[in-house]
Amino acid sequence: MYHGRGQRAEDSKLRAENCDLLVLNGALLTMAGGNTELCLSGFVAIRGGEIAAVGPMAAAPDPASAGTVVDAGGQLVMPGLVNCHSHAAMTLFRGLADDLPLMTWLYEHIFPAEARWVDPDMVYWCSKLAAAEMLLAGITTAADGYFYEYEAGRAFQDAGLRAVAAQGVIDFPAPGVPDPAGNVTTAADFIAAWQGRTSRVTPAVFCHSPYTCGPATLRQAKELARGQGVPFFIHVAETQAEVAQCREQQGTTPVRYLHGLGLLDPATVLIHCVWLTTAEIDLIAASGAAVVICPASHMKLASGVAPLRELLAAGVAVGLGTDGAASNNRLDLFREMDLVAKLHKVISLDPTALPAHQVLAMATQGGARALGLAARLGSLEPGKAADLIILDLRQPHLTPFYDADLLVYAARGSDVRTVIVDGKIVVRDRRLLTFDLAEVMARVNRLAARMRAGAG
Is the pTM above the cut of 0.90? Predict the structure, then answer.
């Protein structure tokens, strides 16, 4: 049944006339107001990169008035997914060092590999590969943090992916920043290069963690982000060992430490937050900071299980992330939805914990809210950015399709047939239209061959 907030058919037709792109005959899941009820046959009209009108087919405009018409043919039309945390260029390190504890993985494998192999060329092509993987899985927006992030932004722009791209900041020599004294200056230069350049790439700052960035760096990076009006991302409280280290070195827990430095506010995004106390959850909620959890990465690295239900109950904006391909190893948010829903049922021994509709909201509206983009993304409503995906429901594992809950428990990224970002079709019938995927895969494979030969 369709719930259109009282929108009249005549109003919908008026707003939809002479649109650039018209999607017809789809089963609509708008997620407007968090509603997961379906309109079994509806349309979406797009003009100037924005949604002009949404409604049942009875209110659809004449297809002759549209520049391009996409017949969804009974497939599911829904908002694009929002991946709130990734390290796109780390596709090069997919499968490089599996089955290791976090600190061993980082310090003995990932950091040395980054020091040797990360350069602008690697970041561009490997980020482009990640963009392809995400777009083909229905992710239309990704928050990314890495080094040489200018090249990642360029890759996202070329791919047609919407992104919040954050330059990495760390207190030891890093790719592109051989002198750590220049880490915040490099981030400032990155922001200057991308601020206002395009509506699809938003610059940001990414401090790796409290254990790799000292207090002066953390304050300076946050002051930069605050002064430029951009988001500030940081890994925090991912493992018990990190919490113990922070207590030993700083005399308090990681979240309290960041709060004491004045880093928590509505433009701060705390990534992981697996090990939190009740008081810290209240502290995050009071500050307005957002949290991103990465279930597959947490499980693979045996970090633990984030207190998701407690965070949501406290009113914290929580988004889902895949993390990088090196610690997941896939960039598929449908898989993350399935994992997080079932994980919280089994640890609580409560099958009603974290219902599917709540998880679906986290991957759309909740993710947009966590990134400060809720006014533009996360639902199919007039005036919002035209970021939407079309899923093929004619699959054995999606038959029968009673309601949207099945998306959480059965859908896969490979079910996505068409992807529209900013009103432009970037994937049609599972084929990327924005670049040559075979070329990108070949280039990444050549980089991997060099790395393998170097390691040998």
Answer: yes
